[in-house]
Amino acid sequence: MNGDHLSEQIHPGWNALVQWLSDPHCMDISIDKLPVVARSSPGAGYGLFSLRSIEPSAPLFSIPAQALLNSLTLAPHYPSTRPKLTCTQAVSLHLMLHRSVDGHSSDPLFGPYISVLPNNFDSHPFSWLWKKRHDPDSLSLDTQLANILPRRILEKLDKMTLLFEEDWKRTQDYLRNNPTLLDKKTGTRIEEDYLWGWLNVNTRCVYHRLAKTRSDGDNMTLCPILDFANHTTKPPYTTPETTRAELWDTGPSAKKKFGDNFVLLSPSSAASPAEELYLKYGAHSSATLFSEYGFVSNPDPAEQSDETLGGQMDLGSVIEHLFERRGVVGSWMKDVLIEEGYWGDWTLHSSPAPAHPSYRLITTLRLYHLVPRYTQSIPSNVDAYLQDWRDTILGKKYIISKENESLWRGTLKKICESIVNDAVEGLGRTAAIDGSEGSPEWLDSSRTFVSWLWQEEIDVSTSVIGSLDQNEEF
């Protein structure tokens, strides 16, 4: 590959970004200290590529703390408030006020960095749902796409909606008390631009110790250069270096106003020149990757690794509805499950073999069938009634009874069969989305992602049905 061709593929904002990191932030951007470049990556927009041979597990680059975009670096530039804005709210607000216009942000603090953030999140499922809710009668592509999503994706997006609305409401209150901040705003699309900022935070922020305790929700930052790295499930991949604040569990030193620098370590094996360098976003299910990041990893086994979760399904609302239909008895059983720590997080898994329900799901369905379906009142002697079920949790008994095992396994099989039927219909609706000339470039990949999600439901449910039919022990 010749140099001219490489130059054509480099991200158009790259040079301005690294110059900004050099001046005013004093980062060493020589090839020794910054041996990477952001350039075109087939099928993934842009990616992070090595400029030279890179030794394994060594510092790849160090981003100065003051160049990180987070609650600490923004605090000196905004009026204080009680309660203070969360990191998500503060960064989303700043991005809203300084969103790029024609690929350029005029923000004097982080302009060159904001300029290389995504122009939009049109391909993100949360955007589809947000646009549909703001125009429910529309026949737009966004509405069509929102209407073909599997139920488990919609459930995750509904939870995200609650978080977004909470953050947006708090930010609106803050702006009402500080109206002059809007004088900095470019454009008039207030909520839409806030959503753009919020999705940048949710898709690109990484853990970075900024607070005294590890559990603090503000231990996060946007990091220049890092967010060009695409996700992978297969080693080798880059990893953030543990900061001193995290290592000693003390939070940032009082001498470091903005916390520690962000250092990224090279992959565990040597990288060659022009090799793409990846980041692992986490051990996430396909549903989580799609709901939060807007993509799904290739389900082809050749593209997977031992660290991949495999096919997985969350049966959240399906199981909740089972108990709702039991009325008073169902409410009581729900309370028992909450008290014992088994309410929610009910999943099916295709691996490791045999395909199986999670222990939490088995325990929940055992309780569901402990009380006969015709019973409409809560048992009088609750503790005695629950003893056999509790004994299975404690390991004192393997099962409640053969009848109970048969009943819960039968219920699970019916659930899986219903999921397969719905997924087959979902695949058909997804294929019917018009991808004709004039459609956005991202449509084909988005349809593929949704199809993979529907197919995962078929594969996982069919595999669990097979395990049930073969009387596999779980």
UniProtKB/TrEMBL annotation:
The chain positions of domain SET read 34-282
GO annotation (BP), single: methylation
Tell me the superkingdom of the source. Eukaryota
Q: Which PROSITE patterns match?
A: SET (PS50280)
Q: Which InterPro entries match?
A: SET_dom, SET_dom_sf, SETD3_SETD6_MTase, SETD4_SET
UniProt-listed CDD domains = SET_SETD4
A GO molecular function held by the record: protein-lysine N-methyltransferase activity
Q: Which UniProt keywords apply?
A: Methyltransferase, S-adenosyl-L-methionine, Transferase
- Name of the protein this chain belongs to: SET domain-containing protein
